[in-house]
Amino acid sequence: MSLLSPRKIKHRKQQKGRRKGLGIATSRIDVSYGSFGLRSMSNCWITARQIESARVAISKVIAKTKGARIFIRVFPDKPVTNHGNESVMGSGKGALDHYVAVIKTGMMLFEVDGVAEDVAKRAFLRAKYKLPVETKFAKKEIM
């Protein structure tokens, strides 16, 4: 199992940021690549492990459908550090622990193509339980 992580980053340690609980997504809001999508309905951080777990859950449901594809629309590129439990105050910032993706309200998390709507709904229902964010099923709007 290979977890998602950036190959190269400019800064090894990042600050948390002030706007963690605010904001509505302005990009990645439409179903672009597939026919159906899973949209976030709240803000949070999603770890690389959670993304991988949701991807596996989706792929198990749509495995029998020939020509089905999964598109992951989020990528964990924010490093999170962690100190040991019994370390004293001071002594600098902790070591790199894992990577997270910053999720805003309305952002598309996953998309699938080449499957029926009921199969896509079942797949996203399984993935929903693996993620720490409220989600909603979305369809591609054809003009």
Helix content: 10-25%
Q: Determine the N-to-C terminus distance.
A: 40 Å
**SSE order, one letter for each helix or strand:** EEHEEEEHE
Spell out the CATH superfamily of one domain.
Ribosomal protein L16/L10
Topology (SSEs and partners):
Elements: E1 36-40, E2 44-47, H1 48-61, E3 69-72, E4 78-82, E5 95-103, E6 108-113, H2 117-128, E7 135-139
Antiparallel strand pairs: 1-6, 1-7, 2-5, 3-6, 4-5
Helix pairs in contact: 1-2
What does this structure look like?
The protein contains two helices and seven strands, in the order E-E-H-E-E-E-E-H-E. With 143 residues, the chain is an alpha+beta fold. It has a four-stranded antiparallel beta sheet, covered by helices on one side. Strands 2-5-4 form a three-stranded antiparallel beta sheet.
Please give a quick description of this structure.
The chain is built from two helices and seven strands; from the N terminus they run ββαββββαβ. The chain has 143 residues and is an alpha+beta fold. The strands form two sheets. Strands 3-6-1-7 form a four-stranded antiparallel sheet, covered by helices on one side.
List the keywords:
143 residues; alpha+beta; Aldehyde Oxidoreductase, domain 3; four-stranded antiparallel β-sheet; three-stranded antiparallel β-sheet; 27% strand; elongated
